[in-house]
Design brief:
Length: 127
């Protein structure tokens, strides 16, 4: 079992940056592939970025490529999402997710592939 806690959200203007963090506790952090998802009001939860257990593989949804960077510090049991050049359409609740097992170089992009979720952190981008 792993517990996930997101932080770093807030209200910002378009064009600025934010860094989200996801702190994990419980089982060994390197046991888990990790991902970031977001959910805007009235919309389904959608994939944002994923990273493998080793951190060697990452993947992004097209709308954030070149602006967002996912990373993990296995020594600190923490995953990050660096978000640059934020846009109003990035407004959502951002969730981190974890799943155990699989190859150290695999990442996962579907919500049903993740067993553990944080409580979410709100990101609001004003125009």
């Amino acid at each position: 079992q792993v517990q996930l806690v997101e932080s770093g959200g807030g209200l910002v203007q378009a064009g600025v940056s934010l860094r989200l963090s996801c702190a994990a506790s419980g089982r060994t952090f390197t046991s888990y592939a990790m991902g970031w998802f977001r959910q805007a009001p009235g919309k389904e939860r959608e994939f944002v970025a994923a990273i493998s257990r080793s951190g060697s593989s990452t993947f992004y949804t097209d709308s954030v490529k070149g602006r967002f960077t996912i990373s993990r510090d296995n020594a600190k049991n923490t995953m990050y999402l660096q978000m640059n050049v934020l846009k109003p359409e990035d407004t959502a609740v951002y969730y981190c997710a974890a799943r155990s097992g699989g190859s150290a170089s695999y990442y996962y992009i579907n919500t049903n592939q993740y067993a553990y979720w944080g409580q979410g952190t709100q990101v609001t981008v004003s125009s």
